[in-house]
Specification:
It contains 15 helices and no strands. It is an all-alpha fold and 383 residues long. 81% of the residues lie in helices and 0% in strands. The chain has helices at 2-28, 34-40, 45-48, 50-73, 75-94, 99-126, 133-161, 164-181, 203-217, 223-233, 238-266, 268-285, 292-320, 325-353, 355-376. α1 (2-28) packs parallel to α7 and α9 runs parallel beside α14 (325-353). The two termini are 29 Å apart.
């Protein structure tokens, strides 16, 4: 009977993993098709780059409250509405007669994703045995990384034919998940009427948010600098630099379950200290890289540890506010993507003057993250 129950829970988790792919997939699918979009909408590359901002800025903004709203209104209803909106938004992009409509569709996608990710994660926690929480979080992070790889791949293939195919694929996949997979997989919050945002405003939760922000703006967010090193310092082509970045993402996807098992063994707090330390070390090592092989090796380490960090703070956020699990997750994720947005704004100008100072600065934010992990006091171990 116990084995049958575990099998049911495992089957319940698989659709949640697949749902977790959709956000990164939809966010990154635009990257390789910017030249085709630029031609279609008769605009500049810089303007077309806002197609990424139109997705990620509302995503980060609504994450501050989306989890709490979902717990309050009901996870299942919110997730179904979110996936329906995500599918519809992709069709808006397909049918866009001008750039304004296309950006509107991207904004709808980012907003919908804010209500998908934290509620899927909250349901995953409730569908997982406590002693296997880290492994489930690691597997979820692996699927997220896989979505981040598949997005540019599918976007590039579509760009060679018709860029609209990629958004049609997003709409179809979202509809399939909505109709056939997710309707019966979402665990509802147990105390809907008592859900409040106040539990997110404690000093311990702010420390957890600071950890996510510091790591994303610092050691876990050096990918943009890695791309510049590959192009300017080592002389790689654009496609080769892209493969370097993908190598880090693939490593993160492959090691996600391994990091999860480590979290189950020592707890997410201790694992977080290890993850941040390793990530900061990889950022420091980039100061001395001078060959293509060295860059690939170090970024594979950096990408893997960035995935390790994501698994740790998502695990900590999942247990931080038990009466508002989705709200705790979305609050921390909002800080993560805020860090990802401001990191390049800080370090690219520094890099222009001194590459070593940029990497040293990224690594130094890891110290702030280490202090924040300790200050939060949260852990996934029962003790």
């Amino acid at each position: 009977m116990v084995a049958r129950l575990l099998h049911l829970k495992r089957n319940q988790r698989i659709p949640l993993y697949l749902g977790g792919m959709m956000g990164p997939f939809g966010g990154t699918v635009l990257i390789p098709m910017i030249p085709e979009l630029r031609t279609t909408f008769e605009t500049t590359t810089a303007t077309m780059g806002w197609g990424l901002g139109a997705y990620f800025f509302p995503y980060a903004l609504f994450l501050l409250v989306s989890g709490t709203i979902g717990e309050r209104w009901g996870r299942s209803k919110c997730v179904q509405i979110a996936f329906f909106t995500y599918a519809l938004a992709a069709l808006v992009c397909v049918a866009s007669p001008n750039l304004g409509w296309f950006f509107a569709g991207r904004t709808m996608q980012g907003t919908a994703n804010a209500f998908m990710t934290p509620l899927l994660l909250a349901s995953l926690v409730d569908a997982t045995e406590p002693e296997r929480l880290g492994r489930s979080m690691g597997s979820y992070a692996a699927f997220q990384a896989l979505g981040g790889v598949l997005g540019p791949l599918v976007g590039g293939i579509s760009a060679d034919g018709n860029w609209r195919w990629a958004f049609i694929a997003i709409s179809v996949m979202s509809a399939i998940l909505l109709v056939f997979l997710l309707q019966r997989q979402i665990e509802e919050s147990v105390n809907i009427n008592s859900v409040s945002i106040r539990g997110l405003l404690s000093g311990r939760m702010l420390a957890l948010g600071l950890m996510a922000l510091a790591t994303s703006a610092g050691p876990a967010g050096v990918g943009v600098l890695v791309a510049i090193v590959a192009r300017d310092n080592i002389g790689m082509s654009g496609s080769a630099a892209g493969l370097v970045l993908i190598s880090g993402t693939l490593t993160a996807a492959a090691l996600g379950p391994v990091w999860g098992r480590f979290i189950d063994l020592v707890g997410a707090r201790r694992a977080g200290l290890v993850a941040v330390t390793l990530s900061s070390l990889s950022a420091l090592l980039l100061i001395w890289v001078s060959t293509a092989g060295g860059l690939v090796f170090i970024w594979m380490l950096g990408g893997a540890t960035a995935g390790f960090i994501a698994t740790c703070f998502q695990s900590l956020a999942a247990v931080a506010v038990t009466g508002n699990r989705g709200g705790g997750i979305s609050f921390v994720l909002s800080h993560r993507f805020l860090g990802s947005a401001i990191g390049p704004l800080i370090w690219l100008p520094v890099y222009s003057n001194s590459p070593a100072s940029a990497f040293l600065g990224c690594a130094s934010l890891g110290v702030i993250a280490l202090v924040a992990v300790i200050a939060s006091g949260y852990d996934t171990l029962p003790s």
